[in-house]
Amino acid sequence: MVPLQVLWGRVAPLNAAANSLIAVxxxxxxxxxxxxxxxxxxPEVDLRFALLLGAGGIAGALLGARWASRIPERVLxxxxxxxxxxxxxxxxxxx
Amino acid sequence: MIRDLLTVMAGLAVGALSGVIGVGGGxxxxxxxxxxxxxxxxxxxxxxxxxxxxTSIAGGASHARQGNVLWHPALQMATGGxxxxxxxxxxxxxxxxxxxxxxxxxxxLVSAYRLWPRGQNG
Lengths: 95, 122
Hints:
The structure holds two protein chains of two kinds.
Chain A: H1 2-7, H2 13-37, H3 47-67, H4 73-93
Chain B: H1 2-21, H2 26-36, H3 41-65, H4 71-94, H5 97-115
Helix pairs in contact in B: 2-3
């Protein structure tokens, strides 16, 4: 959502990030409710797990924002891309 | 206890990565839950959505207080996103979990390609 707003909507990156977070509230709320109450016949949400992950996530996001300027972007993006590619192949070939 | 600690640490790692590179947390959370904690794909996806909600509320509220939100486009995206989440979630909940996992794997490969740095910058 952020790149689309910046490139097509000519929105400043900071505003684009802020707008995206508002949209993610809606997406995660609707999606979460459907997974919990939806057609599967049982909740497909582990609330305890979500709470623990979310708590760690908030703390991590604060740390990440501090570290963002210290790590060369190319290095980080390359490492993350390789990691995602590895996981992607794993899920694709042996789900 | 150990599992709880590992879960918080996983959240910490995901949050830190998201904070550094600005990519959403779900792309990391779901594989960690499926491959690391052996959750079924649908359960991992639903749990990821629930985990992202408080983080996005906190971040969105912070940005709103600072006046960074452009409310008209933000609410348009929120409305579209809600409709997309409705359709996507219903579809995902009806798919066989292996097919869903393979689809997610394909999505990760595309994301990896798009994240790969290009050009001389960095």
